[in-house]
Amino acid sequence: MRAGLRTHGPTFAGVAACLVGAVIVFLLALDVASTSAALHDDDVRYQALPEEHLWSPGERVPGGLAAALLGVEDDVLFRRALRATRLSHPEQPGFSDPSYVVNRNDASAWLTDIVQHDPSDGRKAAAANLLGILSFSDAIADYTNRGRLLASAAGRFRQALSLDPENDDAKQNLELTLSRSKGLELTESGGGTNPSPGGKGARGAGAGEGGSGY
Predict the structure, then answer these.
(1) Are 212 and 176 in contact (CB under 8 A)?
(2) If you average pLDDT over residues 147-156, what whole number do you get?
(3) How many other C-beta atoms lie within 10 A of the C-beta of residue 70?
């Protein structure tokens, strides 16, 4: 009794699947190489051209797989948060330029995410310090809410120091904030420069009335 024809060797569908898989692996390898190179190259470009689109190399395999394989997702988010902080121009408090507002909102959201979820205490501390700088900048421009905003800034600087006691930027910023808060009822309930990628953050919460120490 014949049970039917039997075929031997790989089927066409199996061969095709293997070829597709090999192509994906090859393209992913290219993505890994370009992502690694982009981190270094765009760090250099950031110093002179922060307005450019940075740390986002084109992906041949979508979904951020290359960044995940390299383990640099947190590094990229930190860099983007630094860039958004710089482009929000906290050294010019009170400006209502729409691009500043968009970057301020992005920076606040990303920095908060870093403080809450980043595995590195150093990056958490840097993010908390920058959030404090943003609150300090708001306090200069907002007389009505100045006490609350200065309290929030001080809380963030204390948070940065609790995460990284050696963070000299946060120490100086806290001292400056407390000196500016004399005569106001500053509490510890707050907390809700030119940042450099990979560094501790930004020095100077705002030396001078307009935040010129940024």
Answers:
(1) no
(2) 94
(3) 16
Q: What residues contact 190, with CB distance under 8 A and at least 6 apart? A: 135, 148, 149, 150, 151, 152, 153, 154, 155, 156
The answer to whether the beta carbons of residues 206 and 176 sit under 8 Å apart is: yes
| pLDDT one-digit tens code per residue, 55-98 | 565 555 555 655 555 555 788 889 889 999 999 999 887 667 88
Contact in structure between 35 and 65 (CB atoms under 8 Å)? no
- Span 27-37, pLDDT tens digits: 445 555 565 66
What gap in Å lies between CA 37 and CA 21, rounded to an integer?
25
Torsion region of 185: left, alpha or beta (phi above 0 gives left; psi -120 to 50 gives alpha): beta
Q: What is each CA distance from 124 to 34, 107, 131, in whole angstroms? A: 27, 14, 11
In the three-class reduction of DSSP (H, G, I as helix; E, B as strand; rest coil), residue 210 is classed as: helix
Cβ pair 207, 213 in contact under 8 A: yes
Q: Tell me the C-alpha to C-alpha distance, in Å, between residue 71 and each of 32, 64, 68.
A: 11, 11, 5
DSSP code per residue over 175-189:
HHHHHHTTTS---S-
